[in-house]
Design brief:
By secondary structure, the protein is of the alpha/beta class. The chain contains 18 helices and 16 strands. α1 (about 25-35) links the parallel β1 (about 5-10) and β2 (about 40-45).
């Protein structure tokens, strides 16, 4: 089994993505998370480019990393300076790391038009930069920028650039598809051709502008590359970098290469979600391997099959990458969906029992009205338990009123909700204000219940979505409200449907509280 080096550049290349900005503390936390799964190299940043990265390299030395090596990134020296006098190279040395990665021009078009120097001068710059850094670092990796474009235009010069780095002692020669436009067949042909001319180990650094970064990375390994550079969740400039969350399991589970220890591979989904949270990005549900929908089954025929043999509709076991199988409830559901969901909740149901058919009929009728349970597992669990007599009421609504008042044209409206509930024999009557009518209603509901159920103080509303269901009816249309709530440990989704957006929101909010209390009392 051939070992493949995983080189993560989330902290540097990934941070160049639109809307992404990592603080020094963010970068340190992600470094520790990457070390947990055993990524071989973590590219920490470009210490010569900004104060944030200088600070990172000072602080990262204090981390007790067990598996990963932190690398510093920079460029070959400025044509106007020698390697010894170049401030960028000095900053790389001052970062005090054992591995340094530099990129250099390998496309003759860039050499002439961007650097405005001769091709021979560029070869000297590559050689001198690598040679200088080898005196100060244990390993030096050379990223051949725009290599595939350069090879297609002038293969002799592109290879000479690699030879210059190799002669200076570069430990890895990384072929970069910097514009992300090279197709897999071209990558295979070029990597194999380079492997016949170069003795040093080869790596691949692919961008995703033509949606081929993962495929190009896999093909490069099959063609001889020993190192793959990429980012968690494919973060990166423009359309992103090669997605390590797809590359690693494909290499290891499908192609038989050694990347991470099996117990570390099981943490892949956790790392994916952690990076998204730090980046303040929503998780991509349909992301292969680690997304919420990666092993989700909706059609009744599919569910019936995976209950017997998961491999009928699953290309790997989800647990291998830290994911899990999900059964979605919808109007496409059959008895198998109901039975599988009951199994997950430790509820025994007979396949031919009238309860199953009753639940299935209710589900399809409610979805016809506009309810959707795919993103509202908590509401479906409540529906199931109500049908089986396993639910209990924690409070009864006596009534509520929501008022929106706008006093001046240039001021925001004021929202106030008043609510009256019965909890056991107690009557609670309270009011609250909010940023809008739903927020005010949510606040009033919690205010009324928290004295009886203090565990509700930990519940937060994470997401709130409204969708118009009956097109053409304007403001009188029926709407569906999906609410995502959570506490310190779990998140759950609930749903409500009505022509009145406040009523739909009320249904979803009540289900959220009911679900939390039911779990606490089980």
């Amino acid at each position: 089994m051939r070992a493949i080096e995983i080189y993560d550049t989330t902290l540097r290349d990934g941070s160049q993505a639109e809307d992404i900005s990592f603080s020094v503390e963010d970068k340190l936390r992600i470094t520790e998370k990457l070390d947990e799964i055993g990524v071989h190299y973590i590219e920490g940043g470009w210490p010569g480019s900004n104060p944030k990265d200088v600070e990172y390299f000072k602080k990262v030395r204090k981390l007790l990393l067990a598996r990963s090596v932190v690398t510093a990134f920079g460029s070959t020296h400025n044509p106007k300076h020698s390697a010894e006098d170049d401030q960028n190279l000095k900053a790389l040395v001052d970062a005090n790391v054992s591995v340094i990665t530099i990129f250099g021009k390998t496309w003759d078009f860039h050499v002439r038009e961007a650097l405005r120097i001769t091709l021979e001068e560029n070869l000297d710059i590559i050689h001198n930069s690598v040679s200088f850094l080898k005196k100060h670092a244990g390993k030096v990796f050379f990223d051949a920028e725009h290599f595939f474009n350069g090879y297609k235009d002038n293969p002799d010069f592109a290879v000479k650039c690699l030879e210059a780095a190799q002669a200076a002692g570069a430990d890895r020669l990384v072929l970069c598809d910097t514009n992300g436009g090279t197709l897999p067949d071209e990558v295979r042909e070029i990597v194999k051709a380079v492997g016949k001319k170069i003795n040093s180990p080869i790596g691949i650094h692919a961008h995703n502008d033509s949606d081929c970064a993962v495929a190009n990375s896999l093909i490069s390994v099959e063609s001889g590359a020993v190192q793959v550079q990429g980012t968690i969740n494919g973060l990166g400039e423009r359309c992103g970098n090669a997605n390590l969350c797809s590359i690693i399991p494909n290499l290891q589970l499908k192609l038989g290469y050694a990347c991470l220890a099996d117990d570390r591979l099981k943490k892949l989904r956790d790392v994916s979600r952690f990076v998204n949270e730090i980046a303040n990005m929503r998780h991509f549900k349909r992301q292969p391997f680690v997304g919420d929908s990666a092993f989700a089954h909706k059609g009744g025929i599919h569910v019936s099959a995976v209950r017997r043999k998961p491999e009928t509709y699953e290309h790997i076991r989800p647990e291998m990458v830290g994911n899990s199988q999900r059964i979605l409830m919808s109007d496409l559901a059959g008895r198998s969906n109901i039975l599988r969901k009951a199994e997950e909740l430790n509820i025994h149901l007979e396949a031919n029992s009238p309860e199953v058919q009753g639940i299935l009929d209710s589900l399809k009728d409610m979805e016809h009205q506009g309810f959707q349970f795919e993103g509202a597992d908590a509401s479906f669990e409540l529906l199931l338990k109500k049908a089986l007599g396993l639910h209990r009421r924690f409070f009864d609504l006596i009534g509520f009123r929501v008022i929106d008042e706008k006093r001046k044209e240039n001021e925001l409206p004021l929202s106030e909700a008043t609510i009256m509930l019965k909890v056991g024999k107690n009557i609670e009557h309270t009011a609250a204000t909010g940023n809008g009518p739903v927020n005010a209603l949510d606040s009033a509901l919690r205010k009324a219940l928290e004295k009886f159920y203090p565990e509700l103080k930990s519940v937060k509303l994470h997401d709130y979505k409204v969708r118009v269901l009956t097109a053409g009816k304007g403001t009188s249309a029926r709407v569906r409200v999906l609410v995502e709530s959570g506490d310190e440990v779990h998140r759950w989704g609930t749903v409500g449907v009505s022509e009145n957006i406040i009523e739909a929101s009320w249904q979803a909010l009540v289900d959220s509280i009911d679900y939390k209390l039911l779990k606490e009392k089980e």
